[in-house]
Amino acid sequence: MLKSLNTAATGMQAQQNNLDVIANNLANVNTSGFKKSRAEFEDLMYHTVKEPGAATGLTSVSPTGVQTGLGVRTAAIQKDFDQGSALVTKNPLDLQIEGSGFFQIMTEDGQVAYTRDGAFKKDPTGRMVDKNGNTLQPEITIPPNAQAVEISSSGEVSVTLNQQSVPQQIGQIDIVTFINPSGLKSIGKNLFTQTGASGVPTTVRPGLNGSGYLAQGQLEGSNVNIVDEMVNMITAQRAYETNSKVIQSADQMLQSVNSLR
Fold first, then answer.
1. In terms of domains, do 190 and 104 share one?
2. C-alpha to C-alpha distance for 227 and 118, rounded to whole angstroms
3. 59 shares its domain with 136
4. Is 151 in the same domain as 205?
């Protein structure tokens, strides 16, 4: 009887983790470049009373065996890097990667991070930075007398200066790709860092080697589907309630055993 109590408790814990993931997805439904997550589960060890295939006679074996499962646990939380919808902003420093790839960002502590959020600004020196002031890599500095900024689909950055009609190229925005982007570590602020699971970043020019092109004046929206997350939330809630019913039933059976005279 105690096994069912512990087994159901692991089920409730797993569904609590599942609901935490769903809540984070819904909370970031309007976060630019956000990638939704999915909780994945696996069963725990088994209490084996009789091995499958165990001998039951001189020439016969057990076709199934007797094994009782001991619960479930969260095995992984998988990031889904499907493309989000395009949000047209007409801001010349807003960029969307149409396809695979990440922008390179230099954080305040000198660490290189990666993001799908292309909402860039200018700092006091004219450098392109993200919302938190982290510098885009390689650095792009826009002159103070620039009248217009043009960023091509392949990442060339050109500006039109005062009293000039021909745009002047001032830099090149490259992106990076990973063999396994799902292995990146989320550190918040729309940033990811490299891990042993993600593989080594490969720097490419946008549009080459299967990477995405850049689109100026628009952002990539979150890839969270509200309807799907609401369905997942209801499913998790029902599973949580069902596991709690198992605990109640096991408790009632223990009470019946304790009341025996």
1. yes
2. 26
3. no
4. yes
Q: Please state at what angle helix 226-258 crosses helix 2-27, rounded to 10 degrees.
A: 160
- Which of 4, 77, 76 lies closest to 36 in space, CA to CA? 77
Q: What digits encode the pLDDT tens for the residues 109-151?
A: 889 999 999 999 999 999 999 999 999 999 999 998 888 899 9
pTM value is: 0.88
Domain hosting residue 65, numbered range: 2-80+224-258
The position carrying tokens 């025996």 is 260
Do 95 and 27 share a structural domain? no
Can the peptide bond before residue 138 be classed as cis, meaning omega within 30 degrees of 0? yes
Residues 231 and 188 in one domain: no
Residue range 10-67, pLDDT digits in tens: 999 999 999 999 999 999 999 999 999 999 999 998 888 888 878 877 788 888 888 8
End-to-end alpha-carbon separation of the chain, Å? 19
203 C-beta neighbours (distance < 10 Å), count: 13
